[in-house]
Amino acid sequence: MTLVDKTRMEDAAFRMSEATAGDYFALLKPRVMSLVVFTAFVGLLAAPADINPLLALIAILAIAVGAGASGSLNMWYDADIDAVMSRTASRPVPSGRVSPGEALAFGLVLSALSVMTLGVLVNWLAAALLAFTIFFYAVIYTMWLKRWTPQNIVIGGAAGAFPPVIGWAAATGTVSLESIILFLIIFLWTPPHFWALALFKSQDYERAGVPMMPNVAGEASTRRQIFGYALALAPVGILPWCLGYASAGYGIIAAALGAGFIWYSWKVLKMPDSDRSMRPAKALFGFSLVYLFAIFAAYLADSVAERILGMGWA
Q1: What's the number of CA atoms in the CB half-sphere (13 Å) around residue 67?
Q2: Whose CA is closest to 63, among 28, 13, 24, 102?
Q3: CA dihedral in degrees (47, 49, 55, 58; nearest 10)?
Q4: Which CATH topology does 1-173 take?
């Protein structure tokens, strides 16, 4: 970070910005929020319980706001490293459009609002899980793990894995093995997803001083770990069928998606060191997004079919 950039950020902390509504919306990390909302929605609808549609809508909105609050707190604390990374330099805080104080206040207010709304109007177990998720992402991951250990994504990935459990708890008031399996799918998916990104953005992380796996353990080790996680993720993806929570139709789709994840990870593992285009890593990163959306969409479709037709896809 240059002296000019640092001075601009410090000055911004002591003045009100001229931020637009769009800048505040960007603080919520809408792309991340959309994934959180979708997986929470799947957890809520797949749960074996009937929930009032209005309460279901309130629960999803509260989870979305909680996710946005986490994003705002993350951008407040990470403004210094965001400023030196090409993919994050244009975010509202490092660019100076929103002051750090405003981002902090925005995140704290939304955190309290989302947790209290979920607790008062839905149930307190779901609210407690949401509060823990916000705390885990903003404090444990952002303030500690991210700058301290190359295992930041592995441990911190738990924050992104909680939404389907929160959705499940909102519908049932409990946490079950079925919801824990949904948690595990996202938890095991997170490291290879982000390490694929880190492989072709390693210079960004190096400039920012973030100890991502490629910068600490090297690219070869990172590629091996990506493949190892892919081998672990694929069977977990079909567990709902193996344990009788989903039909054979879901099992076939999950198995195909898992095989695809392994294939793309194998291409990364065998990627020549001389290939600086990082095409296999970029392909895996893209496929990983398809994988998570598709496997949760298949699980949702299977659950809805079971509920409406009294049978799955078997």
Answers
A1: 28
A2: 28
A3: -10
A4: Tetracycline Repressor; domain 2 (1.10.357)
